[in-house]
Amino acid sequence: MADIENETLALAALFQACMQIQRVAKTGYIDAQATAPVIRALIITNPKTCDDIYNKGSLLMGYRQLLSSFGTPTNQRTEEAIEITALAFKLITLENNIENSTVHFDKLSSDIDIARGRILFLKENYENASADEIVDKDIVKEFASIYQSIISPNFPKLIIYGEESYLRVEENQTMIRALLLAAIRAIVLWRQVGGRRRYLIFRRKAIIECARAVASNNFK
Question: How far is CA 114 from CA 42, 183, 211, in A?
């Protein structure tokens, strides 16, 4: 049986990461509140439940984007929604390629575990830290370096569209790489709970209904 609730949770995390990638690329603005939940998930490597990885209330932006991308007819979608959706599907393909390369997938997992150890040594309460602490520049750089050292040289490069003046800024490049890694983490979870690209057409309605139910909840 399909685990629609957790599939939708993972997709919301993916879309929230993609939204922030686009935002940084086009405006240079880093939204700590929206970025922190998907970055934090990178160190949650031994969760008991999916809720240990992502809190639904922190992914409302992702759930709403999921509704815009999946629940709106193609000819009525905004240019932004089209771009975010395209990036999400490119990342799904990339993650599949990584997972099919055992050497690189194992190296990625190992390096994330090592980074997790370093981060928790320096910031013991990192999992429950504030958004600003989670997106600390040194920690973001740690995750970005993993993406740059393992994924960038070994798999087809993703083209991120944005304003050249913002894309040239090193801090923005670092954040985009960390967010790409965070997006891949979301896709790994999506696959773990049964998500597959070929199933989306059949589960689309259920995913939209689930996303709508979460997005309409205030979570106050």
Answer: 12, 19, 34
Strands in 21-163 per DSSP E: none
| C-alpha to C-alpha distances, 213 to 4, 12, 132, 198, nearest whole angstrom | 12, 13, 29, 24
pLDDT attached to residue 72: 84
- Report the SS3 class of residue 216: coil
Distance CA 181, CA 168 (A): 19
Least Cα distance to 80 among 61, 57, 94, 59 occurs for 61
H or E stretch including 167? helix 164-167
Residues 145-193: pLDDT tens digits? 999 999 999 999 999 999 999 999 999 999 999 999 999 999 999 999 9
- Quick check: pTM over 0.85? yes
| Contact status, residue 179 vs residue 13, Cβ threshold 8 Å | no
- Three-state SS for 101? coil
